Amino acid sequence: MTYTSEFGAVSAAHHPEAAQERVVTKSGTIGRFVAPGSATQGRFGLYEWRMRARAGGAGAHFHRTFSESFYVVAGAVRLYDGSDWIDGRPGDFLHVPEGGVHGFRNDSDAEAVMLILFAPGIPRETYFRELAEIATTGRTLSEEEWTDLFARHDQYRA
After folding, report:
1. Residue 145's domain is classified under what CATH number?
2. pLDDT for 73-131, tens place per residue?
3. Which residue range forms the structural domain that includes residue 151?
4. Residue 54, domain member (yes or no)
5. What are phi and psi of 147, to 5 degrees?
6. Residue 3: inside a domain, yes or no?
7. Contacts for 2-11 with beta carbons within 8 Å, 24 or more apart?
8. What are phi and psi of 51, to 5 degrees?
9. Are 57 and 30 in contact (CB under 8 A)?
10. CA–CA dist 32, 36 (Å, integer)
11. Which 3 state secondary structure label does DSSP give 78?
12. Which residues sit opposite 58 in a β-bridge?
């Protein structure tokens, strides 16, 4: 039990859509920080990932300290479950526990939208901001620099 008071608390926090931070990746994908860990007391992080047609995505990788889940809202998202690429359609959900190999991409000719949930709510937005900064500046990274960036954010190629 995490709440022990006899009475409920007035503790809800409204986060209007217009105030939520957004980043744009090199592929033009728009990441919206719906509920980062800083807004959920570190319990989870929820992000919207709006991918342009043929935007690609994240190759096979894993995380050591957090789980990642995907919920397809619109379009078709290719999801890697550690052994096969599967077609995720609206309403489909994929949960990946710590250490589970996974990936995602949009290979279709239409926009695709999904929600990504991280638990616990680690500061994943730091990683997304760094990717956006690389895209914005046109900076190129060596393989060693990519490996270092991924490792700093608990992401390991599979």
Report:
1. 2.60.120.10
2. 999 999 999 999 999 999 999 999 999 999 999 999 999 999 999 999 999 999 999 99
3. 19-157
4. yes
5. -60, -40
6. no
7. none
8. -100, 130
9. no
10. 10
11. strand
12. 104
